[in-house]
From TrEMBL:
Record has NAD as a keyword: yes
Name of this chain's protein: Putative dehydrogenase
PANTHER family linked: BILIVERDIN REDUCTASE A (PTHR43377:SF1)
Every Gfo/Idh/MocA-like oxidoreductase N-terminal domain range: 4-117
Pfam families hit by this protein: GFO_IDH_MocA, GFO_IDH_MocA_C3
Keyword entries, A-Z: NAD
UniProt-listed SUPFAM superfamilies: Glyceraldehyde-3-phosphate dehydrogenase-like, C-terminal domain, NAD(P)-binding Rossmann-fold domains
Transcription regulation listed as a keyword: no
Gene3D superfamilies, A to Z: Dihydrodipicolinate Reductase, domain 2, NAD(P)-binding Rossmann-like Domain
All residue ranges annotated as the GFO/IDH/MocA-like oxidoreductase domain in the record: 126-235
Length: 330
């Protein structure tokens, strides 16, 4: 079976979706819609349709929504009503109420609703999660992420928390397989915009892992690092390069008494792993395709996307109030 695919939005991210949709097996990109036209020239021989209604009218089985966040809900609700399985870019929606309506619409229709939290499909993080599951780190103590870089002019409708920190919240909970339980956050507004351009989130997962996410649009260098510290050492994943390195706790006794007296662990072997590095967006699309075909996959569900958005909104609430916020229901 070949799935007829439609794409809403061919901006900075949408152009990459167009390329991958044309490359993967079992999918045929048959329609593209963008009210702003085709700025990157990705349509090829396809007509650029004006809106979501025209996209649905093209007779599609699946859709990818890559328009600004504030438009996600309207497009997703219409796609659900039309019986179209849908992948929306992250974050799922502009707020949790809209996200919940999207979750409900796809659940009621019995359709696959997915969210593009692409970092889950980064080869370094997939390898990291596999190795943690295999017990190579022992007990997990802490996850610290750094996602920093210059301001992207393409983002206008949300701040750095929903645009970038949502990546780190999602990947952290996914890697340790435990949801955030409590968060405390601080934000800064340094570029004269309505939304925050810097956030630091500190928290703890339900399993007791300490988390720290440092995110900003104010750094002159780009950094995408996840550091996981545990019983047997520390993993460092660089998601910009797909590299994973393990720093093992030392097993050789320290003979220098003045050093051994204050060091909790000693330095051991350092291993940089070699493994296949497939493009994350392609792996994400294959997972979405397979989920639509009824296979077991690691696709990020709308329910999971909504949970991530709830954590980010709790962090923004914490930054406004100055208090920590609990995410435990009831």
């Amino acid at each position: 079976m070949v799935l007829r695919a439609g794409l809403l939005g061919v901006g900075m991210m949408g152009r990459h979706h167009a390329r991958v949709l044309r490359e993967i097996e079992g999918v045929d990109l048959v329609a593209i819609a963008d009210p702003g036209g085709d700025p990157h020239g990705v349509a090829g021989d396809l007509e650029i349709l004006p809106d979501i209604d025209a996209l649905i009218g093209a007779g599609i089985d699946i859709a990818v929504v890559a328009v600004p966040t504030r438009f996600h809900e309207d497009a997703a609700i219409k796609l659900a009503a039309a019986g179209v399985h849908t992948l929306v870019e992250k974050p799922i929606a502009h707020d949790i109420h809209a996200g919940q309506r999207m979750v409900d619409a796809f659940a009621t229709a019995g359709l696959v609703g997915a969210v593009g939290h692409i970092e889950r499909f980064n080869p370094a993080l997939q390898e990291l999660r596999r190795r943690i599951e295999a017990g190579e780190l022992g007990a997990v103590y802490q996850v610290a992420t750094r996602r920093q870089g210059p301001f992207p002019s393409r983002i206008a409708d949300v701040g750095v928390a929903k645009d970038l920190a949502s990546h780190d919240v999602d990947l952290t909970a996914w890697v340790v397989q435990s949801d955030y339980e409590r968060v405390f956050a601080q934000t800064a507004f340094k570029s004269g915009r309505e939304h925050e351009d810097m956030i630091t989130i500190t928290g703890r997962t339900a399993s007791g892992v300490i988390v720290n996410n440092i995110v900003n649009w104010l750094s002159p260098m780009k950094e995408r690092v996840t550091l996981v510290t545990g019983e047997k050492g520390a993993f460092v994943a660089d998601t910009s390069t797909g590299d994973l390195t393990f720093y093992a706790n030392g097993t050789i006794p320290l003979e220098w008494e003045s050093v051994s007296s204050f060091r909790g662990v000693s330095e051991g072997d350092v291993t940089r792993y070699a493994f296949a590095k497939r493009e994350p967006l392609r792996v994400e699309h294959e997972a979405f395709r397979d989920a639509v075909l009824g296979h077991e996959t690691d696709v990020v569900t709308m329910e999971q996307g909504l949970r991530t958005l709830a954590v980010v909104e709790a962090a923004l609430e914490s930054a406004r109030s100055g208090d920590s916020v609990s995410l435990v229901s009831g």
